[in-house]
Fold these 2 entries.
Entry 1:
Amino acid sequence: MSQFIVLGWHWLVDFSECSNIPTDPEVLERIIVTAANLAGATVVKSCFHKFSPYGLSGVVVIAESHLAVHTWPEHRAVCLDLFSCSNKIDAQAAITFVADQLKAGNVVVREERRQVPGSNGLRDAD
Amino acid sequence: MSQFIVLGWHWLVDFSECSNIPTDPEVLERIIVTAANLAGATVVKSCFHKFSPYGLSGVVVIAESHLAVHTWPEHRAVCLDLFSCSNKIDAQAAITFVADQLKAGNVVVREERRQVPGSNGLRDAD
């Protein structure tokens, strides 16, 4: 039986039929940082960018790993990623908040475990 | 038959048995930015952070979406994400380069499509 060391949990969220996608990167940043705080994460730093002619991208480093968001206003769609190395993060609270802010009509969530082969016997870092 | 609008492709890469994990965030940033360039991506901005007592996190906004990286030196492991909205990005080139730099003994790659229901008939953004 294979053993794994679980490094974290990664939620891939695809929002569609969104009727309130921000066009201002600062507005989107506030939404994502608030979502991170609601999940219980600790925000470390972030970068948000506005593309031409439209579309925003943002990435947030949290103590527990990261969030990332990208908007496709032409498709009324937004993709969100939440990667947490802590099992105490309330990803659902973050996802629900973002869905509400975007007024998303449809939300698809995939949860992936990030892991590597190994066990507690794995030797320490070099 | 369901139709989807493909927003992008997302590679989740878990490297293990790494014997050369950087401890300097600037070194890791150079590796990830180089990887992005090798893949043909356009780097926009990035944030990298060093945690205490160890571990680095970094996120890079690219014109095509983002890369993210986290290190677990205590487990000789690194997780990398490459999300691209362009099908011209050579993710394998980026992954191979990072694996070589980390001297990773094992690499597991998962590819996820990011998509939302819809078709070309989807109405334009609000």
Note: Chain A touches chain B through 52 residues (CB under 8 Å).
Entry 2:
Amino acid sequence: MKKLKELVLDETFEMFVLLKNADVRMAKNGKKFIAFTFQDTSGTIDGKFWDASEEEIKKFSAGRVVLLGGKREAYQGAPQIKILNMRLATETEPDSPSLYMEKAPISREEMEAEFSSAIFEITNANWNRIVRHLFSQYQQQFFEFPAAKRNHHAFAGGLAYHTLSMLRIAKSLTDFYPEINKALLYAGIILHDLGKVIELTGPISTEYTLAGNLLGHLVIVDEEITKTCQTLKIDDRSEDVLILKHLVLSHHGLLEYGSPVRPQILEAEILHQLDNMDASIQMMLGALRSINPGERTERIFGMDNRNFYLPHFND
Amino acid sequence: MKKLKELVLDETFEMFVLLKNADVRMAKNGKKFIAFTFQDTSGTIDGKFWDASEEEIKKFSAGRVVLLGGKREAYQGAPQIKILNMRLATETEPDSPSLYMEKAPISREEMEAEFSSAIFEITNANWNRIVRHLFSQYQQQFFEFPAAKRNHHAFAGGLAYHTLSMLRIAKSLTDFYPEINKALLYAGIILHDLGKVIELTGPISTEYTLAGNLLGHLVIVDEEITKTCQTLKIDDRSEDVLILKHLVLSHHGLLEYGSPVRPQILEAEILHQLDNMDASIQMMLGALRSINPGERTERIFGMDNRNFYLPHFND
Amino acid sequence: MKKLKELVLDETFEMFVLLKNADVRMAKNGKKFIAFTFQDTSGTIDGKFWDASEEEIKKFSAGRVVLLGGKREAYQGAPQIKILNMRLATETEPDSPSLYMEKAPISREEMEAEFSSAIFEITNANWNRIVRHLFSQYQQQFFEFPAAKRNHHAFAGGLAYHTLSMLRIAKSLTDFYPEINKALLYAGIILHDLGKVIELTGPISTEYTLAGNLLGHLVIVDEEITKTCQTLKIDDRSEDVLILKHLVLSHHGLLEYGSPVRPQILEAEILHQLDNMDASIQMMLGALRSINPGERTERIFGMDNRNFYLPHFND
Amino acid sequence: MKKLKELVLDETFEMFVLLKNADVRMAKNGKKFIAFTFQDTSGTIDGKFWDASEEEIKKFSAGRVVLLGGKREAYQGAPQIKILNMRLATETEPDSPSLYMEKAPISREEMEAEFSSAIFEITNANWNRIVRHLFSQYQQQFFEFPAAKRNHHAFAGGLAYHTLSMLRIAKSLTDFYPEINKALLYAGIILHDLGKVIELTGPISTEYTLAGNLLGHLVIVDEEITKTCQTLKIDDRSEDVLILKHLVLSHHGLLEYGSPVRPQILEAEILHQLDNMDASIQMMLGALRSINPGERTERIFGMDNRNFYLPHFND
Amino acid sequence: MKKLKELVLDETFEMFVLLKNADVRMAKNGKKFIAFTFQDTSGTIDGKFWDASEEEIKKFSAGRVVLLGGKREAYQGAPQIKILNMRLATETEPDSPSLYMEKAPISREEMEAEFSSAIFEITNANWNRIVRHLFSQYQQQFFEFPAAKRNHHAFAGGLAYHTLSMLRIAKSLTDFYPEINKALLYAGIILHDLGKVIELTGPISTEYTLAGNLLGHLVIVDEEITKTCQTLKIDDRSEDVLILKHLVLSHHGLLEYGSPVRPQILEAEILHQLDNMDASIQMMLGALRSINPGERTERIFGMDNRNFYLPHFND
Amino acid sequence: MKKLKELVLDETFEMFVLLKNADVRMAKNGKKFIAFTFQDTSGTIDGKFWDASEEEIKKFSAGRVVLLGGKREAYQGAPQIKILNMRLATETEPDSPSLYMEKAPISREEMEAEFSSAIFEITNANWNRIVRHLFSQYQQQFFEFPAAKRNHHAFAGGLAYHTLSMLRIAKSLTDFYPEINKALLYAGIILHDLGKVIELTGPISTEYTLAGNLLGHLVIVDEEITKTCQTLKIDDRSEDVLILKHLVLSHHGLLEYGSPVRPQILEAEILHQLDNMDASIQMMLGALRSINPGERTERIFGMDNRNFYLPHFND
């Protein structure tokens, strides 16, 4: 059976999908409608449900699985679903949300194994103990959360997958440039976005928490390292702890992007650039997968609102 | 006897002064010189000591008191001292550095009393306990440190005095605008710059510490609140703790100025503006005190490099 | 009876309100509608009147009082009224617009008294004569006009009230910092926004006049001072007149905000910051009054489009 | 005899020149020196007079004519004079400053004639009366002042010459584009920089006046128009007066460049662009005249600090 | 018979017009509509065709002439047509698109003559040969293309007309300033926008080509000069060729506007400013022609989104 | 024997070095001096030669080898040489400049082999032919030139080495992300900076050529591809050629950095980021190699003028 992202323009269909988001809004004419984001393992498409009754609003909430009949159309360049009919999946049908969530392209087990060997290479005792402590404390959410509310790696497990991709490129870099401190770079990469498990609410209907809004995930990790040091009796004013914190705090690269300090250490600058590169590639690939050669993607907010052209050479 | 700042152009003098800074540099001709900042209670003036021998460099180090014979000149609009002769003060002379340091215009005792009553008005239990704990932990340095390496309130006790001035204006504001939460604003003001006692090295030859460079004083206070909560068993994810941290983290107002988040709470925005206003007034007053009506101050770095005109109406 | 701002979500009501604005626009379907701003003394809420006939457009014009039946809904986070029925108020009903206008929180008489004593403290003869002359010339409009077309203090009397708030904070500042020239600061505050009585059309359906658009209120006040000097035979090139003009011209602080010169006098910089602070507080308070603890305000244009969070501590 | 600008690198000379500027500064070694700008009708070159005595400082002041013996060298790409000997010109020698001032390339009489016919074409009565009144009031200075303290047209008569060049290009434009209101554009051009006769101190040792610093020449002209209207009993709130003022106030084009309003009228935008174009051409030509084909000019501050290349095609 | 731009608000009409653009979009309700731009020789007005069938979409495509019955209304300040009825023009009716296209105000023959004499004045042999070669190669499109997709000179022949206007002003400038190399400036002007015949698709339904998007018209002309040199055996690294290329590449003035280098030659800077000035005047005149005295134009994207006021003095 | 970069502070020495740069300047006192950059295979250090005679200036020109006696000092944080004595190397001494040039860390042969196999992987015929043609045409200079005048990879062979590093990281990336078109990315990387062999004068006394200044290396490569297509009869308007050119033109990422277009293709964006990352790492490593743990590097112009801290963990 076809997946959401495989539908072509004007194709009609009926399939089970997950309601990833279900925002109730009011139309200009005063009636309510639901702005859905439908999801299956191939990705997400939006669709609007007009003139929604209070009952329908209650029934079709985020996180439910539905049998959706619709037509794949386009609105201002982006694909969208025209809803023809829709009902909740029953118990005898495939109604478990986890069946429809986009997943990282490799399994959790493989990822865990790669993280294990990466942590093994963190040879500085303080860094190793801090990383192990926090990694095991937040492991559950780390492998379930997306890397961002939207934009890049916005799928279940995206946070772990993004972190892993960075570790892989970092490995190549440290092979070419032996002056780079591999232990530090690995420790920094593993912790840099870990605060997102506190900044965001989770993989479905992802929102910012109050702590996320008021502190941001950079400071949140800094606090977690501080508490870990107190617990493990590590001096949090020693140079190696200060440097690890600095990698986390400076990884957005510029003050304008929310880092309270700019990178002042070789590995901090590299961490920032790796983060940037991996996020960019994911955002571009995500948008390019939805179009055909000769077309342009929709504008990508996280890429300065640029759109990208897909050449014919992949035919 | 005349003070440093009372000297007029081309006046010669002999007086005891403190060596606030003593930076050794190399002239274009390859010889070393010492760039001194001389200080007494009236303020500071720079002066260069040419062709310094290794022995002189060792002898005339920052923090020593000297008997200085010189002439008050000007260099590119700023006052400077031409050094005619100079020797260390002896034990029988007034050789204690504290005699020459610029001080806050009111006494430490008065300041302590005002802080006490301000803390008394912090009626929220969590905020009150956190503020009391940190205030007593760092009280010693808080009353000795300057508020900045240079720019505003750069004198011993300047940190406490700047904080106090802000509390005073805050009091007026909360009188006019009763919607402002006075307890929160007071707690935020008292803690906002407390991290400077860790960010800076102290009142003499003030430099940034490694923690100051790599974390910045905003994040340092945030960490201190985190540790205090762990010690006092306060939930550091409760709304009132998050908000207090937010006031500290956002008080630079803009991301470009090093706040990882912009103010999102009424009192956070007000704290930022009060900080700005008090610092500005101090910088302008400091520069205006050195000139005569009809003249312009030197350019003030912290005021976008503007200079200011002193009108004749004060005559 | 309930006021506009006291209505809760989905509450239906019938009440008399003033039509503060009534902009006729065309919908995408080619039919006309009226975008109303309804007002009573508690504030304003928008509402759209669909498919308006030419007769209705003529009848429901800005400045009229209507009996409005409606429902309080929300559109994109901001409160709005769904209009159920609406008719003009009759002569036997409370149909005077002044009954529904938001007002400054203190009476005109009290404000006048405070202005009188403030002007009394302007001890420089030139400044005093100029201020008295312009204040009495434009007194009527000064106490009726809003401080801005929208954003801060956008209510009848808002201009006088904003000016008065600034005078109050200025009083505290000059108490702490006796170096500030109180006479100059008071004169500058009273005149700084007086040009708005020429820049804007008035308290209802407020628009910019041609002079407002082509010159702006800063230059308008400058011209008024120039004319006053010619009338009162004061030398408009004397230092004290130049300085007073400078305070007015520079009070937006930055060239980008429309000041032809940046502040170059202590009191000019302070005036700019006081203006900023009072306007900010009013904008935030205005937005916070419409929401409940735990919610966020709508985005405030004048505050760099930020929204603000209302904590639970006020419960 | 050779002129200053005709000297080649390393050429020694003796000639009478005017001291255009004579700034006394202190060298790093504490001795005073005079930074001269020498001038004759070909242009200006800088030169430093080391170890100046108090008597020499008094004698060699700006505005005096000297017999200068020196060598034409270069310092950081810019030509400069090494002073070999120097004495004041005597009464029997050509000691009148006016003999050495750079002048506009056409005579004052020719310029006056062109202005007369331009004013004749200002057919709107209000604009014509205002222009005539102010032009005759400031005529003397208008033909003597430079157009700027430095940068473009910084020579005696430069203000009138710059204004005239703009009128000439404006004439061509109004020929091609008859929709442009020629009377308005001419009136705006003639008045746009007239305030510089109040903003600056004059053609020698040009500095900003207090009014120049605190108000700026845009607002100064606006005030002069206001006073003229009061004197001539013209309504200064009539549309044509508002528009004329708008042309003057907006002629810097951007708020960042000191215009309190941006151009909102066709002729205001054109005036701004003509001003820009003529000033740019003059700055570039001035710098290019000092170099040979294949070389680059010094960096020009008023052209975003760019330097320009002189090709060989002019050989 | 009335033209499109002569219709007044609310006037109904029936007339033949060209469909300049016909973009098919989807409304929020899921139905398709066509966003038309209607055109006759007086200009263009937009109008929406709701609920378009597939047949209508095919029939009413860009480039067809239709008999349009409609009403002239306004939408958000801009004129628009409400479509009442519409059918294709038949063979017996005036159905040739060229009858309805806006044209340059002077004839192609006159323009060709002026270009001929301008090219005659390009006295440098290399420049002359390059210009002649490219001008004759692309002559056909050069006289048919618009100067831009929208904004300035967006009509058939606009590219040639814009180029010609610049040549005219350049002629005046070179008369006043004989230091300007007329041959170079003329050559640069003629070539500067020639790449638009490759960057854009043509005068109807103007879009960017793939080369236009990926290279831009500046680099396209640079490539064309390179190829011409290879064909004509001119050394493309000689100074005069480098300079001509530089004029083309730098004519947007700033890197931010897409020039890979900023102007470094007198004539390059002047070319940039002339381009700017002529484009600005055309944009303003185009917008001002649609409104009455006392009104403001719609916001003009190419003029930093400003709108302009039309005074009454033209009555 | 010790190398230049191995000298410690205040160490005296005598060694053969190459004069990489020898700029003659004039001191404030009017005497000439030579600002040398001394070089051996360990790197470069600056040193000033005071009071240089004309004969010495002629003798000690860039590109000569000298026997230098000196002392390693420091000036404003950067190492510098105090010259004690200096003479030209004789024929019997090691006087070949190539003995002293900093070189890429791997041999030319190894690099050539890696380039060969990379070109082999460019499977698109057009790209392969273009790359082969240009690579063989400019091979000689490509392996000798630096990658920049200063900043990153500023050593002989730096251009080839920088390009090779990028190919290596690109290889890892294409392994992880198979959607990336490896042939295109390799072709783009090899050509992206090839224009520097025309933009710069060579490995010694590196300056910009006229073509470099007026066109820039991005446009230069674009022209070279254009000429290659004409020579090899490849259609330069085909999609694959347009895309290859686009990769070159857009590789500075932002218009402000001199790209006439921003990246619009996945591989173009990746090329830009790889370029950035490799250049950054080289600049940081270069600066960090000159300092000890606990110190800060000098400010690095190409890294937004930041300096970097070297932690103690490498001890």
Note: The two ends of chain E are 24 Å apart (CA to CA).
